[in-house]
Design goal:
The complex is a heterodimer of chains A (107) and B (178). Chain A is mainly α and 107 residues long. Chain A is 73% helix and 0% strand. Chain A has one domain: Helix Hairpins (Orthogonal Bundle), CATH 1.10.287. Chain A is elongated and about 55 Å long. Classes of the chains: A mainly alpha (107), B mainly alpha (178).
């Protein structure tokens, strides 16, 4: 999997770290019952993807990876804003952050 | 072992351990602060990947702005501790077995995919590092990606209006009535 000299961090190192981070984020989204922690886990997943974008861009000798990361950060900001606004609106209704508590379409 | 590789392992350990603590932490305030630590580790990795500008953006915008927004909301809601797991569907042995099998399959799939990426991984791109300066990135962003950049501004506008109309709905309705 790795080259023999092993003196520098290679693409595979970064990809494995990215996969580990993405798995941690996925586990958080699936296992946690606190909406804020779920959103934080989504941020972990987004950052794992950012890491692979930058690693691929670096090893292909292109700046496209970095530019895509800017857009991902912007989308993450928009997602966090709307997600947190939704959490605030839901919390006013039900006084809980447990996603299992939101069972009704009508508030 | 080169200095570069040691730095990689240090930053990778910071990023991964902090991310793991984010997920297992029961207090959301600690989760947010630990995630900032994870982002600092990732910023170090971006510097190693010759992307210092993204590293700075990661610290200033991600850790500095987005995470502070999370912290505001956590403190605004006076977020309660997580409720214990309901005994029922999630606790049954069958769902745990299915989950464990899926996790193992996923890990094997990842290992298989990464073991086949040898051709890309061993290119000699590392011998000729191409560092992109901020002017380079700005020029590409405003020329080749100008449309996406402008579309992003519409996305942010939509997100802003959406957040306002969701979070401040009762304020807006009250003003309309009053």
């Amino acid at each position: 999997m790795f080259s023999k000299e092993g003196a520098v961090a290679e693409l595979n190192h970064y990809l494995i770290l990215s996969a580990v981070l993405f798995s941690i984020g996925t586990a958080g989204v699936l296992l946690r019952r606190n909406l804020i922690t779920v959103l934080l886990s989504v941020e972990v997943m987004l950052n794992a993807v950012n890491l692979s974008f930058i690693a691929f861009g670096r090893f292909l000798g292109s700046s496209d990876g970095q530019i895509i990361v800017f857009f991902v950060i912007t989308v993450a900001a928009a997602e966090a804003t709307v997600g947190l606004a939704l959490i605030i609106a839901l919390f006013r209704h039900v006084e809980t952050l447990n996603p299992d508590a939101f069972r009704q379409l009508r508030g | 072992m080169g200095f570069d590789l040691i730095l990689f392992y240090v930053f990778a350990a910071i990023a991964a351990v902090m991310a793991l603590l984010v997920v297992v932490q029961s207090n959301p305030v600690y989760s947010v602060l630990l995630l900032i630590g994870s982002f600092i580790g990732l910023a170090g990795l971006y510097v190693l990947l010759d992307a210092p500008f993204v590293a700075v953006i990661q610290i200033i915008v991600y850790a500095g702005a987005i995470m502070v927004l999370f912290l505001f909301v956590v403190m605004l809601l006076n977020a309660p501790r997580e409720e214990p797991a309901p005994s029922g569907l999630l606790e049954s042995g069958a769902t745990r077995a299915i989950g464990a099998v899926l996790a193992v399959v996923f890990a094997l799939e990842l290992a298989w995919a990464l073991s086949r990426s040898r051709t890309l991984a061993t290119t000699d791109a590392y011998d000729m590092p191409r560092s992109f300066s901020v002017p380079d990135i700005g020029q590409r962003l405003f020329q080749d990606y100008a449309f996406a950049f402008e579309a992003t501004s519409i996305l942010i506008l939509v997100a802003m209006i959406g957040a306002l109309s969701l979070a401040a709905r009762h304020v807006l309705e009250g003003r309309r009535r009053g």
